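Tokens as discussed.
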């Protein structure tokens, strides 16, 4: 089914300030399932809006409930107090990504600036309770992983298959076949001031125009997108893996990933909310 990527499905009607942004966001692609998503989030945006994201996470996303339009399940006013730090062109773009990661399809947030409306659409549904409650610990992990997967330093859009142990990331046979290239896994906590962002390298690294699991030349501790490099996700390269469960013994994704290679007697951080990205071949 062909439809606009929910990644950036903000609709503009008469808001002149957002005209360049909305023009850039009107692209389409064929998606096999709800887990397939585009990625074009610039790494510098993660730095720029980190404080705003922490404020947003401490509040519920929604204000007053509105009558849903046809095709919607629920419609709410956006909590403008919580989202105040995103009221720029770049911030609106980033906020659309956050909302599409967190809320499921059918959930819509709506805002007005003067006479001009703007809508933010749910898509994947990794943290649905955020609509009426502050973002909980698990939700912070899942939305973080979704943001990292969809970050791209090349300013291009790829079709990605997002896989992980969350019901919103269920995959079907067609998706598994159409997206066979294992890029890597992403995890961390973006919503804490001292929270680190991690990526481990998958079995098919060096995918064209995808740099977020590739190490910086001269700095093997970080990736090209500024994430902490945790090493190889699995033991496919005969190295010590960063994750305890690999696609071969889980369901096509990595689980229980650490902040570095798993070494006996080394104290490490472990993350349960991990998303593994696969690209089309």
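Sequence:
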């Amino acid at each position: 089914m062909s439809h606009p990527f929910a990644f950036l499905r903000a609709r503009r009607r008469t808001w002149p300030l957002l005209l360049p942004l909305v023009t850039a966001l009107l692209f389409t692609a064929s998606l096999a399932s709800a887990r397939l998503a585009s990625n074009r989030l610039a790494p510098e945006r993660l730095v720029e809006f980190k404080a705003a994201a922490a404020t947003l996470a401490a509040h519920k996303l929604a204000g007053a409930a509105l009558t849903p339009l046809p095709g919607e399940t629920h419609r709410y006013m956006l909590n403008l107090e919580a989202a105040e730090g995103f009221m720029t062109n770049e911030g609106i773009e980033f906020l659309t990504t956050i909302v599409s990661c967190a809320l499921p399809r059918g959930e819509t947030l709506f805002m007005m600036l003067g006479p001009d409306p703007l809508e933010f659409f749910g898509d994947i549904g990794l943290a649905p309770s955020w609509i009426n409650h502050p973002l909980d610990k698990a939700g912070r992990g899942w939305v973080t992983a979704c943001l990292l997967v969809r970050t791209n330093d090349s300013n291009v859009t790829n079709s990605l298959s997002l896989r992980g142990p969350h019901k919103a990331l269920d995959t079907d046979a067609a998706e598994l076949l159409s997206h066979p290239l294992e890029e890597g896994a992403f995890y961390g906590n973006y919503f804490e001031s001292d929270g680190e962002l991690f990526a481990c390298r998958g079995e098919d690294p060096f995918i064209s125009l995808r740099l977020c699991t590739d190490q910086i030349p001269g700095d093997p501790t970080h990736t090209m997108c500024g994430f902490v490099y945790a090493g190889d996700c699995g033991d496919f390269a005969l190295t010590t893996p960063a994750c305890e469960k690999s696609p071969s013994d889980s369901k096509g994704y990595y689980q229980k990933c650490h902040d570095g290679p798993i070494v006996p007697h080394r104290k490490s951080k472990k993350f349960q909310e991990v998303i593994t990205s696969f690209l089309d071949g």
